[in-house]
């Protein structure tokens, strides 16, 4: 142990510097990324991110929502599906997003909401139940770049033809030590989720 602990300490320091002060997290993030394919579809599906208990969308959720609204307003799909549950007793993310979409001119009849799914796998299942009766098979799927690989696979497994649309690509924009450390956390989290989903047979 007396030999192992110093080695682990040195490795930890080296890993910290690699993640904070080199492009390594950006390269790993780019490896996870999926390029956008923006074409007409039957619906736009905006995956959940987070909302606080006062009803304020977190930054990532706002990015995804605005991306979905713009796609719908430009006529790429007649339906806008907004997802996201409530947290800590506040309003659901889906309803907050729907209110924002209406304010930006999306017609109420074009908006569908789903506020019960807590995982990406649940979202794929709930969206299938929403869209299959409407005959929708082709969707524009909106999420962040790091999440898209897993999300696309899950929605394809649910029977959809998926056109991926990334709301952001942090691999090209993050260049500060703090941003790279946050990007490392996102990449590691998504990598572990991919491993878990494959082992569990979800992908």
Describe this protein's structure:
The chain has a domain at 46-171: HUPs (Rossmann fold, 3-Layer(aba) Sandwich). Helices cover 52% and strands 12% of the residues. The longest helix has 23 residues, at 177-199. With 203 residues, the protein is an alpha/beta fold. A five-stranded parallel β-sheet has the order 3-2-1-4-5, with helices on both faces. The mean pLDDT is 86. Helix 1 (4-21) crosses helix 8 (177-199). It is elongated, with a radius of gyration of 19 Å.
Notable characteristics:
203 residues, alpha/beta, Rossmann fold, 5-stranded parallel sheet, 12% strand, elongated
The number of strands is 5
Instruction: Quote the CATH topology of the domain at 46-171.
Output: Rossmann fold
Strand order of the largest sheet: 3-2-1-4-5
Give the percentage of residues in beta strands: 5-15%
N-to-C CA distance:
40 Å
Secondary-structure element string:
HHEHEHEHEHEHH
CATH architecture of the domain at 46-171: 3-Layer(aba) Sandwich
Q: Please, what is the average pLDDT?
A: 86
Low-confidence stretches: none
């Amino acid at each position: 142990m007396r030999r192992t602990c110093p080695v682990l300490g040195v490795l930890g320091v080296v890993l910290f510097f690699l993640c904070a002060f080199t492009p390594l997290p950006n390269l790993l993030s780019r490896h996870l990324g999926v390029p956008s394919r923006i074409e007409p579809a039957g619906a736009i599906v905006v995956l959940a991110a987070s909302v606080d208990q006062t009803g304020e969308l977190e930054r990532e959720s706002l990015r995804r929502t605005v991306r979905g609204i713009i796609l719908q307003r430009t006529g790429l799909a007649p339906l806008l599906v907004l997802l996201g549950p409530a947290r800590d007793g506040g309003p659901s993310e889906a309803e907050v997003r729907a209110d924002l979409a209406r304010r930006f001119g999306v017609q109420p009849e074009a908006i569908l909401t789903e506020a019960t799914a807590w995982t990406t796998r649940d979202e794929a299942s709930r969206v299938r139940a929403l869209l299959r009766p409407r005959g929708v098979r082709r969707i524009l799927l909106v999420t962040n770049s790091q999440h898209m690989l897993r999300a696309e696979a899950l929605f394809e497994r649910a029977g959809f033809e998926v056109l991926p649309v990334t709301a952001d690509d942090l691999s090209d924009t993050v260049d500060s030590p703090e941003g790279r450390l946050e990007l490392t956390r996102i990449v590691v989290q998504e990598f572990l989720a991919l491993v878990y989903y494959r082992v569990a047979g979800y992908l």
